[in-house]
């Protein structure tokens, strides 16, 4: 049974308790123009616990040189609480994904051009954070992986679907989706508030989260992560929550 679509047609809803994170596992229809797909690499490297250890290890590996900005991981926003959109409940939590056959399903309903381009840039086997949004406490709950690269999103042609797009043609589909599979839960819930604290600190000292799209392009439901961003956020699961 397909899961509810991922996108909101109009308007943006701020994550509760975090006004800077605007949209749940959905993004509003924006005037973003098509952008070139980001080059990607397969995931690599390991995480170090804590900013000091992470920085020390990176300087050792690279001679202190800044790595090139390459996106090879992702963050996918999803709403864990019920919300009706054109009469359809768009709720889809990590538990809903785990309940799917083979713990796998398609990531449909994206109707933002930049987010669509990110979907199209995803490569088989790349990992992503599953992020609960538009809920009491937004944050990262699990890791998933891409098990099928971009292909046409069937919901754009379904007149009964809330994300039907009458302007899209089957011979030249406007919208894409990928298939994702559950990998594991994070060792602990990593709240948005904690990630933001590190983001603000890194903006001041040049840390890996200084340009994290979760805070620079909050409305996007599909967001790329560099290896450094992914490694640092993943290292937080080893830390005791403050």
SSE diagram, text form:
Layout: H1 51-62, E1 71-78, E2 84-85, E3 88-89, H2 94-98, E4 104-107, H3 113-121, E5 127-132, E6 139-152, E7 176-191, H4 192-205, H5 213-216, E8 222-226, H6 227-235
Parallel strand pairs: 1-5
Antiparallel strand pairs: 1-8, 2-3, 4-7, 5-6, 6-7
Subcellular location: Nucleus
Biased composition (Acidic residues): 28-37
Region (Disordered): 1-60
Structure description:
With 242 residues, the protein is α+β, with helices and mostly antiparallel strands. It has a domain at 71-237: ph1033 like domains (ph1033 like fold), CATH 3.10.590.10. 22% of the residues lie in helices and 24% in strands. The chain is built from six helices and eight strands. It has helices spanning 51-62, 94-98, 113-121, 192-205, 213-216, 227-235; strands spanning 71-78, 84-85, 88-89, 104-107, 127-132, 139-152, 176-191, 222-226. The strands form two sheets. The protein has a six-stranded mixed beta sheet. A two-stranded antiparallel ribbon has the order 2-3. Strand 2 and strand 3 (88-89) form a beta hairpin. The longest helix is centred in the last third of the chain and has 14 residues, at 192-205. It is globular, with a radius of gyration of 17 Å. It starts with 50 loop residues before the first helix and ends in a 7-residue tail after the last helix. Residues 1-5, 7-14, 16-50 and 59-67 have low confidence and may be disordered.
């Amino acid at each position: 049974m397909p899961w509810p679509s991922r996108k909101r047609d109009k308007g943006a809803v701020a994550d509760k308790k975090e006004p800077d994170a605007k949209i749940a596992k959905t993004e509003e229809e924006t005037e973003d123009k098509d952008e070139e797909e980001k080059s990607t690499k397969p995931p690599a490297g390991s995480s170090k616990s804590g900013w000091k250890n992470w920085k020390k290890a990176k300087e050792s590996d690279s001679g202190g040189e800044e790595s090139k900005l390459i996106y090879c991981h992702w963050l996918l926003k999803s709403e864990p609480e019920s919300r009706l959109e054109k009469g359809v409940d768009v709720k889809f939590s990590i538990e809903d994904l785990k309940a799917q056959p083979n713990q796998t399903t398609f990531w449909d309903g994206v109707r933002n051009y930049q987010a669509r381009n990110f979907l199209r840039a995803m490569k088989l086997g790349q990992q992503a954070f599953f992020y609960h949004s538009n809920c009491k406490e937004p944050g990262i709950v699990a890791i998933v992986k891409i098990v099928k690269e971009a292909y046409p999103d069937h919901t754009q042609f379904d007149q009964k679907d809330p994300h039907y797009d009458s302007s899209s043609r089957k011979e030249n589909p406007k919208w894409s989706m990928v298939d994702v599979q559950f990998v594991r839960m994070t060792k602990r819930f990593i709240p948005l508030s904690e990630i933001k604290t590190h983001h603000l600190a890194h903006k001041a000292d040049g840390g890996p989260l200084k340009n994290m799209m979760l805070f620079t392009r909050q409305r996007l439901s599909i967001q790329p992560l560099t290896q450094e961003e992914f490694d640092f956020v993943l290292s937080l699961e080893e830390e005791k929550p403050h």
